[in-house]
Amino acid sequence: MKITLFIPCFIDQFYPQVGVSVVKILEKLGHAVEYPEAQTCCGQPAFNSGLWDEARAVAEHALDVFQSAEVIVTPSGSCGAMLRVFYPQLFAGTPRYDLACAVGRKTFEFSEFLVRRLGVTDVGAEFKGRATFHDGCHGLRELGVKDEPRQLLRQVRGLELVEMDPPEVCCGFGGTFAVKFPMISTAMGEGKCQAIAGTGADYVISLDSSCLMHLQGLLARQGKNIRCLHLAEVLAQSL
Amino acid sequence: MNHSAREAMLGRIREALKIKAPPPGPHAGAAPHPAPRDGEFRPLLPAVGATWEEQCRQFARNAELLKAAFQVVPNTAAARAEVERIVREEQWQRLATYDHPLLREIGQDLGPTPLFTDRPYDKAELEKCEGAVTTCEALIAQTGSVLVTSRGCGGRAISILPPHHVVIARREQLLPDLLAAFALLRQKYGAHYPSMISFITGPSRTGDIERILVLGAHGPKRLTILLLEGK
Amino acid sequence: MSPNTAVQFKAQATRLAADLEHRQWIFKALRGYEAKRDECKARFQNWEGARQAAAEIKYDTLNHLDRYLEQFVHHLESRGARVHWAADARAAREIILDLARQNQVRFIIKSKSMTSEEIHLNEALEAGGFEVFESDLGEYIVQLRQEPPYHIVFPAMHLKRGQISEVFQQKLQAEPVTDPEALTMIARRVMRQKFCQADMGISGVNFGVAENGMISITENEGNARLTTALPRIHVALMGIEKLVRTMDDLALLLPMLATAGAGQWLTGYNTLYGGPRLAGESDGPEQFHVVLLDNGRTRLLADAEQRDVLHCIRCGACLNVCPIFRNVGGHTYGTTYQGPIGSVLTPHLRGLREWKHLSYASSLCGACTETCPVKIDLAHHLLHNRRNAVQAHPPFFERLAFAGFQVMMRHPALYRLGTTLARWLQPLHGLVQGTALDPARAWTRSREAPRLARESFHAWWKKHRRTTSPS
């Protein structure tokens, strides 16, 4: 299978090691990986701000880039949801609606792709430490990805996985929400950090670097020595 | 004026409905859950036992969780004895009741002055009653509810105003669920429904202060249900 | 530039989000609810199937609302109930005021009704010279404190027993007790008198049953039962969306409302009312009026995309799971309906321009959609409201910014250039960080900022491809 990667813009710019990890894992599993270099952003910031025309313009570009792909894999539940769930809404009633649906259907979040599509739960990873998993809301509720990352993490040798209490609560990032309503975003994040600290974990693992950027920013400001890692980074650590 | 307001509103509704709305479906990511055909809600709702005994046990369990007192009594004499015990223990002076064959046997001559709510009565007098003894239309096993109506059970106020409500139910009145209760009401009252039909599920309660449960907020603080096993 | 409502919201939200005591209090209050809700859900043989069935019931009813409404009204009128049609809040208030005047009413007792909050009925009745008493304990407490309900189901959840005791001492000359039971009994004693004195009882409606023209009221305290049993007039105020088809529909919806609303498998009293005192009945009101309220509902009905918002059964489940509600509290919204349903609904009832900020004040986490027992697509409707707001009133600066974003993201070369420039400029950010000049202040005030990687993934890939595929 030829796998086409979609590396979201902020991973490209802030967290390239996440993309690098994805490539390493997929290539280790024996798959050919392709990265169309013309890709930029899925358009979600404009979409979530209500600027659907601007979002559509960006999404048109993404459709052009990805239309001929066999499968599209992205290390982000949020951007994956944008392509699979929101592109059809964005293009409803336009000539490119069918293409938008088709691109959406072949888009997979990284852990979802490994477990559901490739049937892989053990990539032979090793990682020493106590970690908790943060469910990004888009991956969890828009894509229905919940068990897949946990299945993968349970196979990582040396890793101890502890669930948070309460689980499944938003970290408060929410894209532009984080700067439009910084105090609410921060309050939500503080609640999350408390739940994280409550597990005694040294690491927080997630499918979304955007949530992690917010959480890491808060944890660092609080002086807490807890590191945020993308699932792919954990899985690729020992490769 | 009222007629034109009515036509205007219905007109706005008809205009609005010219565009079809997308039917409710699964949310993205979640598996679809096909709904059963109209009215076939039983496979979705909490399970109910098939036999009377199972349903009775289920009612008893629900009643206990609801903090209602529930007893199966062998006959009317035993029910009468139980009501007598309550009347003595709580020192009832006045008791609300109404004309009904079952209630003639239970409660009306136990000592407290009876107040009959099936004839014109003074609501201030009803408010002074320490308790009410009533029949019911049905008991619902699935939920632990008592079904009363304004026509079959002594009016609207008797089951809500006095602080202790004692309900006498016959064996065949125990029903599995709300659907069975609605079927019964339809069959019994057809086009002439009583003006009030009430499912009472436990004594009156509130959690409005710090989410702490308090019984007897406005209605009865105590609910006693006596189910006659025999005649 | 920003409308007043948005400024107030932001100020209040900023204050309460930082109020640790408030946050902990609300979290604690909802913890018990969560456990009981999950327990009740588990009782259902198929909760997800029940959600779908409930959504289909409401879908069917709303999409044939004219037919069901006529059926409903026909049955009601045939039993001697009087039905009134109110196009808006003012019409509804006038109808009820007229009824009170015509019948020489003095005291009015109310059972909890969010729809009456929506039309600001109490203020109108009081201005008309009538004494109005809220009989639901939580509603009575907030009425005494002269504040709106904090939550559509738990109106006084923000208050501690000491605060309640205080207002009872001040307003009712009650003894200084703080035990919840003792406080409840004070209210019970006061209300008993009011129930007996009141000439008119006003209630809301949880469901209207088209099949037989009865209204269904759900409550725990018995105050609605008393409100509809003792006064000589009963007025029920009902939003037209509250209709269902049959009593059987209630067999599903009543347990779902109880489960989602308060973590009960059935609420204490679920009562159907179909008329005034009928022949052969010994008590109950002489008059029964049903006021059917539109007030923007037909406008929402005309919006096919968001028609499902009218599915709402006002259980409050979406508030309870909403991290925004939990952090900013119910009063911050400044609306009748709080939380996600309020953020979605209020722009339709009171105007998008003034209330669009509520749709932006969300992280779009989707917990509301996931919990909604009638499957309202709440989180997505927040996005729809944002889109509609932009279409109706394009925000100049944001538009400009996203025009730039759009051009950059459509042209990979510009994107590369832009991000390279950002790398050069990044060290300058360090100079202003933490000062008022910091353009990223909204982020950096409470969070460390991430740093651009030395090498982008794109740059890494170019090298990687050279080493792995020599072609």
Which characteristics define this entry?
heterotrimer, A: 239 residues, four-stranded parallel beta sheet, 15% strand, C: 471 residues, six-stranded parallel beta sheet, four-stranded mixed beta sheet, 10% strand
Helix content of chain A: 40-55%
- Most extensive interface: pair and counts? B-C, 88 and 114 residues
Rg calculated over all Cα atoms of chain A:
17 Å
Q: What's the total helix number of chain A?
A: 13
Shape of chain C: elongated
Could you characterize what this model shows?
The complex is a heterotrimer of chains A (239), B (231) and C (471). Chain A is an alpha/beta fold. Chain A has 13 helices and eight strands. In chain A, strands 2-1-3-4 form a four-stranded parallel beta sheet, sandwiched between helices. Chain A has a four-stranded parallel beta sheet with strand order 6-5-7-8, with helices on both faces. The model of chain A has no long low-confidence stretch (mean pLDDT 97). Chain B is of the alpha/beta class and 231 residues long. Helices cover 29% and strands 22% of the residues of chain B. In chain B, β5 and β6 form a beta hairpin. Chain B is globular and about 65 Å long. The model of chain B is unreliable at 28-32 (pLDDT under 50). Chain C has 471 residues and is an alpha/beta fold. Chain C is built from 24 helices and ten strands. Chain C has helices at residues 4-17, 20-43, 47-63, 65-78, 89-102, 114-118, 121-127, 137-144, 161-172, 180-197, 223-227, 247-262, 297-302, 317-321, 323-328, 339-350, 352-355, 357-360, 367-371, 378-392, 396-410, 412-432, 441-444, 457-468, and strands at residues 82-86, 107-110, 131-134, 200-203, 207-209, 214-219, 233-239, 243-244, 269-273, 287-293. Chain C has a six-stranded parallel beta sheet, with helices on both faces. In chain C, strands 8-5-6-9 form a four-stranded mixed beta sheet. In chain C, β5 (207-209) and β6 form a beta hairpin.
What is shown here, in short?
The longest helix of chain A is centred in the C-terminal third of the chain and has 17 residues.
Q: In terms of topology, how is this protein built?
A:
The complex is a heterotrimer of chains A (239), B (231) and C (471).
Chain A: E1 2-5, H1 9-13, H2 16-28, E2 32-34, H3 44-48, H4 52-66, E3 71-74, H5 77-90, H6 97-105, E4 107-109, H7 110-117, E5 126-134, H8 137-142, H9 147-154, E6 157-162, H10 177-180, H11 182-198, E7 203-206, H12 209-221, E8 227-230, H13 231-236
Chain B: H1 2-16, H2 52-65, E1 69-73, H3 76-89, E2 94-97, H4 101-105, E3 113-116, H5 123-128, E4 131-134, E5 138-140, E6 145-149, E7 164-170, E8 174-175, H6 178-189, E9 196-200, E10 205-206, E11 214-215, E12 222-228
Parallel strand pairs in B: 1-12, 2-3, 2-4, 4-7, 5-8, 7-12
Antiparallel strand pairs in B: 5-6, 6-9, 10-11
Chain C: H1 4-17, H2 20-43, H3 47-63, H4 65-78, E1 82-86, H5 89-102, E2 107-110, H6 114-118, H7 121-127, E3 131-134, H8 137-144, H9 161-172, H10 180-197, E4 200-203, E5 207-209, E6 214-219, H11 223-227, E7 233-239, E8 243-244, H12 247-262, E9 269-273, E10 287-293, H13 297-302, H14 317-321, H15 323-328, H16 339-350, H17 352-355, H18 357-360, H19 367-371, H20 378-392, H21 396-410, H22 412-432, H23 441-444, H24 457-468
Parallel strand pairs in C: 1-10, 2-3, 2-4, 4-7, 5-8, 7-10
Antiparallel strand pairs in C: 5-6, 6-9
Helix pairs in contact in C: 2-12, 3-12, 9-10, 16-20, 21-22
